[in-house]
Amino acid sequence: MARTISVGAQSFAKIRENNSFYVDKTDFIREWWDGLDDVTLITRPRRFGKTLNMSMVECFFSNKYAGRDDLFEGLKIWEDKKFREIQGTFPVIFLSFAGIKQDTFQSTVEVINQKIADLYNAFSWLPEKLDMSENDKLYFKSVCMSMRDSVAGISVNKLCNWLYKYYEKKCIVILDEYDTPLQEAYIHGFWDELVGYTRALFNNTFKTNPYLERGLMTGITRVSKESIFSDLNNLNVVTTTSKEYMTCFGFTEREVFDAMREQGIPESEKTTVKRWYDGFTFGTQTDIYNPWSVTMFLDKKEPNAYWTNTSGNGLINSLLREGDRRVKQEFEKLLADDCIEATIDEQIIFDQLTGNPNAIWSLLLASGYLKVDRIIREVPEDEPVYVLRLTNFEVKRMFYGMV
User: Fold this and answer.
1) What domains can be seen in the chain, in order of their start residue?
2) If DSSP codes are grouped into helix, strand and coil, which group holds residue 204?
3) Is the distance from CB of 350 to CB of 191 less than 8 angstroms?
4) Model pTM greater than 0.70?
5) Nearest-5° angle of CA 172, CA 175, CA 178?
6) How confident is the model over 347-395, as pLDDT tens digits?
């Protein structure tokens, strides 16, 4: 019997409890945990399963889900005794910056602060259980939407400290969609202010934090290290060209065709689905399909621009319209199903976007609108030149609507 498609569901626990349609990505847990990296940043295009995978990681490791074998039985990770024994055994802090799209610095900071305050509210029992000092109690109470930047900067670090004291175990900290407010800051002109705020928060949370077991971050872009990650020399950055976690985000062709069979979609539709939603490459893994669009297709049973219609694409539209003649000429080649050549810098430097065509192509590649057709390197020590083309028909149709 075909499982029900739960469109937009991002809660791993809810999906499993309802026996909704789910493609098993639990091997990500094994690969990440066995990798032993202190802090990992994984970049993937929007709506590529990042939040669902982070929810899965929380459900697996968090002691809030201790004894929840039912969430993982029948999935790949549960075949390994080593992992069955550590399920539900860690304090986990989960923060998500998804949806933080305010247009001023003050309102952005207030929303982030409120999310941190919500974390503190979830652990409101800590002051009494730990018999905190009066100073610590005052600090705990001071964490709120209007707290000072100096308070916010160390807030997650201090929460890790208190959770460690209570559970006698270091914390896993998950930060989902870390770069969403940063992109809005660039668009609305408060980039420098927000970079200062987030640099302090990230450094205290992921670098100078002796109570951190592991850190896991996701986003769309790898923001320039000089901007916010200058202090994080313990950070393993995994981009779309990296060879780690290649099949953990997005659907492989086999997963797509298996899902179509389960949902009773005829074999004759494979060509259509491939044309619309295939084309993504992570590392050396080709034929990665857009999971949001495929899931919508499975539900609606007809092709449409499901993924490209979920975003305003304001930044992309602006960059292409305001680009110089070379950018426009290269873009016309892409629309004509031709390729372009570019030097890619996976560290996105936002203040170079308006004057550097390669920075624009780098952003489009990271965002999933372009794919690497091949790499040109005359000799091993040469800087690689990437041959790029539009990812698939869905993306091409979106760009036709912009010109």
Assistant:
1) 12-238 (3.40.50), 252-308 (no CATH), 312-400 (no CATH)
2) helix
3) yes
4) yes
5) 155
6) 776 766 777 888 889 889 999 999 998 888 766 667 888 999 999 999 9
